[in-house]
Amino acid sequence: MWISLLAALTLASQAPAAAPPPPLSVLVAPPDAAGAPSHVVEFAQEHVAEQLRARGLVVVRIEGITRRLTAARRRALLRCNRTEAACIRSLGAAGKTELVLVTELGQLLSGYRTGARIYTSNDGALVTEHLIPGVREEQLLDALTQSVDAVVSVARTALRGPPPAPPQAEPPPPPPPVAAVEAEPLAPEPEPEPEVIRPLRRWSWLPAAGGAALVGVGTVFYLQAGDKYGQLDKDGTPGAPLANGDALASSGRRAQTLSRVAFGLGAAGLVAGAVMFLLPGEPALKVQPSAAVVPGGGMVGLSGTLP
Q1: Where does 22-160 sit in CATH, by number?
Q2: Mind listing the pLDDT tens digit of every residue in the chain (307 residues)?
Q3: Torsion angle of alpha carbons 98, 102, 103, 109, nearest 10°?
Q4: Distance from chain centroid for Cα 69
Q5: How far is CA 200 from CA 126, 203, 204, 253, 254, in A?
Q6: 104 by DSSP, 3-state: which?
Q7: Given Cys at both, which of 45, 59, 174, 281 links 198, Cβ 3.0 to 4.6 Å?
Q8: How many CB atoms lie within 10 A of CB 143?
Q9: What is the spatial distance between Cα 3 and Cα 151, in angstroms, rounded to a whole number?
Q10: Domain residue spans of the chain
Q11: Residue spans with biased composition (Pro residues) (predicted)?
């Protein structure tokens, strides 16, 4: 029993795979070419046969069949109505093909009416047709190729079924997991301190020097006013008053007033100098001058950030 089973499995594994279906066979029947010149008809028939062979069909031309027939049989095949099922069956039987293709090539005022109709030989039934009206003569071959593509695709599906789906490729294996490494945060780079300019500091000595000078002037006037007061207080007596006492008193008051004004202005100058020296600076403006020589003249400009 085990030997028989092993032999059956061996034969099954060695059995050939199912053979692909044979290619479709088609008879290129006489065309329906009302009004078309004979050379155009002959060239169109040859083009249709080449397109059918290029698509893998076994092609039989009606000219190769009629040479072996009697004159009466030949006339019957060539003159039968190719829209009737009986005519299609006769053509298919004569060519021994599965399909019969009839090219249409009628010449009208608006151009050629081109296309193709394809029938099954066993019952003469129409499988499909594809017709294009208003075709110019230089477009005949392209139009016939388009019609052959359309009818052959439908006929192949009708007689052989839809084409097998392409094998699905196996998905690639997933990539190996990558161990996550926690990156250490980078320390931020220290930003360079912006350059600070103090435009008033360089001039702070001017009000300070002026204030100091005014303080000195105020001191001189203060001392003069003290001297005048001393003269009025010591030199004069009730019995012998000073002759110029009024002028001396007026001069002392004037010196006292000037000393106060000088002290006030001097103090203001000193304060102004200190403020100008201690004021906070501003970031330096990165402005760079540029110059260029161009044809016919020159150019001067500034580049950078302005406030």
Answers
A1: 3.40.50.10070
A2: 556 655 555 655 554 555 678 899 999 999 998 888 888 889 999 999 999 999 999 999 988 888 888 888 888 888 899 889 999 999 999 989 999 999 998 888 888 999 999 999 999 999 999 999 989 989 999 999 999 999 999 999 998 888 777 777 778 888 887 766 676 776 677 776 666 666 667 777 777 787 788 778 878 878 877 777 777 666 655 555 666 667 777 777 787 788 788 778 878 877 777 777 776 666 655 556 666 655 555 565 555 555 5
A3: -160
A4: 68
A5: 104, 5, 6, 38, 36
A6: strand
A7: 281
A8: 24
A9: 54
A10: 22-160, 198-236+245-300
A11: 161-178
Sign of CA dihedral 40, 43, 49, 50: negative
Phi, psi of 82 (to 5 degrees): -80, 10
CB atoms within 10 A of CB 69: 14
Instruction: For residue 41, give every residue at least 6 positions away whose Cβ sits within 8 Å of its Cβ, in sequence order, or none.
Output: 31, 33, 105
